[in-house]
Batch of 4 targets.
Target 1
Amino acid sequence: MDAEHIALERTLVDYTDGTTTFEGYVARPAGLGPSAPCVLLAHEWSGLSEPIKRSADRLAALGYVCFAADVYGKGVRGDPMGDNSHLMEPMLADRALLRRRLLAGLDAAAAVPGVEPSRIAAVGYCFGGLCALDLARAAPPNLVAAVSIHGVLQPPQVTEQGQINASVLLLHGWEDPVAPPADVLAIAQELTDAGADWQLHAYGHARHAFTFAGANFPERGIIYDARADRRSWAAMKGFLAEALGVKA
């Protein structure tokens, strides 16, 4: 079942971190019962864009409340097909700030009516993959799983890394120039040292943004790969079902 064939309820939710207001997007299947598991979707570098909302709808159609979080601020949006470095770079330069905003988004997701606060997983693509991993690194007690899809893998070095309690799934294009093999080996060691339950699926010949239909910038190592897209979706589906205790 996908978002085109299931009735979804959609709402916008304002939440804050300090003096900054953020706008989350919530999608859920119509008639979904109480105490439902939740997937927190972390946006890529363009912010809470229409493509991210469509991704949230697709995840919600699997039977979850999907909360698409916002780390830039309400109304701060980039161009899904353009260069959004000016939005992302300040977050990469201050990973402590990014962590606070991610935790604020997690709190907002847990407070959505009908969400079971102890059954939340984080999913993210590209910059959002880094966000999902940084949430797992923060080790909030109600985060049970994190999925990074062609994500940035480098650690935040905010504090000494403690135990990571969330299960972690890395879905990685082996020829991704944003996450070269040295970064893959480094995060494997990081997750092992942190005692995490982790998996790595590496897709041969796939590059960065392999799930983004229409991506075709080979000079930057950004190319859509239908096979890796299909396989990564199936892997994520099964992983979330196991972690959140639902039927795949």
Target 2
Amino acid sequence: MKITKHEHACLQVESAGNTLVIDPGSMTTALVGLKNVVAVVITHQHADHWTPEQLHRILEDNSAAVIFGPPGVAAEASGFDVTVVKDGDVIDVGPFTLRFFGEKHAVIHSSIPVVDNVGVLVNGQLYYAGDSFTIPEGVAVDTVAVPAGAPWMKIGEAMDYLLALKPHRSFPTHEMVLSVAGKGLSNQRLKEVTEVNGGEYFPLEPNESLDL
């Protein structure tokens, strides 16, 4: 299985000639020319994780792709056929087994509504919690996409998250809110805590890939 990181929160996962796209949002370069996309997972409804324009680009060449998301995504993306998923659901699509965890986005501020959010475990290997620190109960996490910066977090929370998960591999996501210097600082901190438990940290940049 091959993971390609795009800008911010978007991941492209390839297996057996098929592709899964996760969180194609507004901070990600236009996704054009993607082929053999069997599914799109949208963890929550915020624009940095999905836009109508990105979905239209994907569906233009992949009309049979299935879109998965929590109820809030289905409501926001009313012009698309969204299959609603929730905590505990397990779905097979193409070569991908998708297992969903969690229910809500992390709290940004008491004045801002907390929206639906689901994390996804792909083929028992790659875990991405969206905008949350949901821990997948009963799962030994092999590889995790960990947030490097966001209005809803501080770096110490991401560090504690990695210490709790103890992944074999980790790499940063949700980094477009950071400066170059800020990314360097976050990478160093996330690397340190990944290595504490014997894991390896990969400071992926956009369009770089990791083979599992």
Target 3
Amino acid sequence: MAEFNLTINGESKTVDVDGTTPLLWVIRDYLGMTGTKFGCGIAQCGACTVMVDGRATRSCSFPIQSVGEGQVTTIEGLSDDNSHPLQVAWLEKAVPQCGYCQSGMLMAAAALLEENPNPTDADIDARVSNICRCGTYLRVREAIHAAAEAQSA
């Protein structure tokens, strides 16, 4: 066990865990933040996506020791009141159905928009590769474009 000092959603947190513990389990089990979901456990589906230093990161396979001094942002840190342009667009475009993949999908989209404020469909397809069992991919694209437009206005 080792002590790790993390910055999650702008707040300092300290956890005492094995360094190989996936960031997902630190977030959910040690810090009680359950917005980040467990899906496949092998970094394929994207339900566990968070941002580490602004980059979309599949937290189920990202060991806590790899966070270092990085800034972690989870779905809880996207906005306090669901007012982030992506969250607004997600609802306006009726993206969620079952909702399970949505927190990871939103975090992948947020990381994309931080890097590329005006993505093409090809950019979205390449960077938001999360799996949605409900198949709302076209609405995801529409919502990302709408959020990009709202952010640039």
Target 4
Amino acid sequence: MRVLPLVLALLAAAASAQAPAPDRTPHSEVRLVADATAVAPGDTLGVAVEIVIEDGWHVYWQNPGDSGQPVTVAWTLPAGASAGPLRFPAPAVYEEAGIVTYAHGGTLRLVADIAVSPGASGDVDVSGDLRYLICADVCLPASATLALTVPVGATDRTDALDAARAAIPVPSPEWTASASATAGGYVLTVVPPVGVDLGGATFFPSEKGVLDHGAAQAFRAEGSAFAAELVGSPYASRPSETLAGVLVAGDQAVELAVPVAGVETAAAAPTSSLTLWSALLLALLGGVVLNLMPCVFPILSIKILGFVEGRTDDRRALRLHGLAFGAGVVASFLALAAVLLALKATGDGTGWGFQLSYPWVVAALAALMVALALNLLGVFEIGQGAARVGGTLDRGDGLSGAFLSGVLATVVASPCTAPFMAGALGFAVVQTAPVALAVFGALGVGMAAPYVLLSFQPALLARLPRPGPWMVTLRQVLAFPLLATAVWLVWVFGTLRDLDAAAVLLLALVVGALGAWAWGRWPSGSPRRALVAGRATSLLAVGAAIALAGASLAPESETWAAYDAAEVEALIAEGRPVFVDVTASWCLTCQVNKQTALASDAVEEAFAAHDVARIRADWTDQNPAVTAFLDRFGRSGVPLYVLFPANGGEPVVLPEILTPGLLVDALGVTPTDTASR
């Protein structure tokens, strides 16, 4: 009976021998090397992460370029010790299908200096969690925990890191450089040592988002200097203040960090020329001029109409309306400013007019503009104060409506930047909250001032013609600027979503207008049957308009569905062909295949013709479910392309490099097609 456990143990051992642990450093070997056999307290210990890379594979530089992930190390050090930055040698350029990356092949040594605590004794234990991405036709994540121990004593240096240090670019006084910003990027001018030709030199920026990695660089001789026009990154929101990176010319490489002339810091630009009082004055003037901006005037024209129609009211009522409108403007400016400052405090890059970056806000404003325009055209009425102040909540003195018209004017006005406003806003966003709110409040006061003053000077209204039919004409004419504003808002909506969504929103506005017409066509007092029919039509139309608006805001239907194991199995069980693309944002081959093969018209037509369910499994963050799918096919990296044929055929693993023809051929041969032939 004791033989059985022995046999089972031997079988388990054999099974474990046949299933070795996965290689954590595929196609590479790693180790940690020190430059001393002993180190004194308070001294510096140099260490190098050495990665020996198999031929045909590469790992990425500190700025990987258009794709990839850099090599990183998270150090674990003794108390009191600290590690300097990981320093890289100069990279090489890897280019495929227009995607440019910066990477290393062969043997890579990355150097860091460890500052040992002055109170160190015994041994210095250094360890680090190494992470990198190694790529060829596929990309594989790699990781390792490296460690070494160096005794504390008199420092005993070795030459183990001499070659590694020599390969790392450093600043050199023999090289001088300057840079300036241009409309499309930068001009970098370098004066190298005598005899060095920069004709074929390359500048590698140390950070992403500064230069267009794929743009050509050509240094031209200008006397003893060489200059190159460098194309800025299309993703940069503003020019960089410093060009930092490595310039490689032949077998020479030098580290550069060059201030860029013509680029002011965000904080220094306004504070160097503005004081608080000058910023408040500019804000006040900017608020006044804001009334003339195209996105503001249509709303304020309603307020003007309200003053005209209400000029026979007593002076107290006019003043209260003016003050309520002004309060709505100022309160809204302060509220929007508070939200803006709160978002910036969290690191959000939101700017003034941020509310119009939300599609639902833009859609609601467009609907409101159309409703107000229809009201001015006389299509429907919502109360005596509606036309006067752009909407009212009560039928009395309409103060709430005046306040709300001020709110509406501010919401629509904030995307505009009138003269004088830019400097004031730039000053405000880098100040303390009280100062910033004071500047934004001054903007509100400036915008509201003309209407508050007009309400306190009703004599100015006496110069207008006496009430008559011309007022109906004026009311109707003022509807068209509102419709123009609605057009602008629909355009903004289209830029936030897409053309199809904008078309659906337009249809929602038309259906909503039908509801408004039905409401106005059979007003209160109409025969009962007509009134019921009119109200029912109106409610149905408005409900349909809301449903259409909701559809325009719904998430876009993706041709590619996100990976879900259960969903994939359900599709296969239905007998439908399924194509699974296992990809990652850092995978260069994945991105090339997407552009050159998966997105081609021929492949799109083939997918549609065979009713192929397209599944995209994103492994950017090494999702465990996607990892399990990779394991199922014996893969440890991406890309992976698997076609599950129709009616339960055996899955087909396609090559890592795709072409449109290969995909079309693969999609065209399924059990269903074979049977039909």
